[in-house]
User: Which sequence fits this backbone?
């Protein structure tokens, strides 16, 4: 990040989850005053512990005027957000003026949409940065995250999962898969990680997926060529809880390219459940 940007507020556009809060704390600790933009219906109310504003997705004009008034030079887009339909957005005048760019951005997969949104910010003279640039301590390391390591069969499943995510990358699909005993059990798509893991739990409860005891690994990694400033994969205690319900053996994430929320709590929860969490070299 550039030196001029470091003396000015850092805007964090906040979707759901705890990551926007953790990144804001890291920015403040590093002397970067964070200004949080909470997306109504998505962001955690805890953003109100920082300088902030609440906006709806379609209020682009108000967003850019607010950031200009705050003296913001850099912006980060952090947290989960359900992809809206363009026709359902209540656009303000600033968004209407940018409608051709918005329409173009919505004509494609999630990566295409996020790249289009980033381009809107950059045309306003704002530099888009990633969570990993602000808070690199949140990145997954190589090796166990907690007290358990992956067994040989689980390591083989991790390799299959990582290869599958890489192979699916051109199709802009999800960032996670479940592999059990060499078999691909589930692929994350538009439903997201939690819903995919619930689907695995339901399959096991209905005995449509017959595995003996805890089995299988949830593998999370970015797609090839993914812009990590805009959509870096992430896991947290919620992921561990979902993996336990799905009766998996563990969770594996690509080291250096996946964020971990509430790492200490995640490790405690995984250890207590007998689940491994590991970072693998992508």
Assistant:
């Amino acid at each position: 990040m550039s030196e001029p940007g470091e003396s000015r507020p850092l805007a964090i556009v906040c979707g759901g989850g705890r990551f926007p809060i953790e990144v804001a704390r890291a920015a403040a600790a590093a002397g970067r005053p964070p200004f949080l933009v909470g997306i109504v219906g998505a962001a955690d109310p805890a953003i109100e512990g920082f300088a902030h504003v609440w906006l709806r997705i379609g209020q682009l004009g108000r967003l850019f005027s607010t950031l200009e008034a705050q003296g913001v030079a850099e912006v980060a887009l952090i947290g989960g957000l359900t992809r809206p339909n363009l026709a359902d957005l209540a656009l303000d005048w600033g968004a209407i003026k940018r409608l051709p760019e918005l329409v173009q951005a919505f004509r494609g997969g999630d990566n295409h949409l996020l790249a289009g949104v980033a381009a809107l910010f950059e045309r306003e003279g704002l530099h888009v940065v990633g969570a990993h640039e602000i808070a690199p301590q949140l990145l997954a390391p190589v090796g166990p995250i907690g007290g358990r390591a992956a067994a040989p069969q689980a390591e083989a499943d991790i390799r299959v999962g990582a290869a599958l995510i890489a192979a699916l990358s051109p199709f802009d699909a999800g960032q996670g898969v479940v592999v059990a005993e060499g078999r691909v059990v589930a692929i994350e798509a538009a439903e997201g990680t939690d819903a995919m893991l619930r689907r695995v739990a339901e399959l096991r409860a209905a005995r449509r997926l017959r595995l003996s005891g805890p089995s299988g690994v949830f593998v999370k990694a970015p797609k090839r060529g993914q812009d990590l400033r805009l959509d870096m994969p992430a896991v947290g205690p919620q992921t561990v809880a979902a993996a336990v319900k799905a009766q998996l053996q563990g969770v594996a994430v690509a080291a250096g390219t996946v964020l971990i929320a509430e790492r200490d709590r995640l490790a405690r929860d995984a250890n207590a459940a007998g689940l491994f969490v590991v970072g693998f070299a992508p």
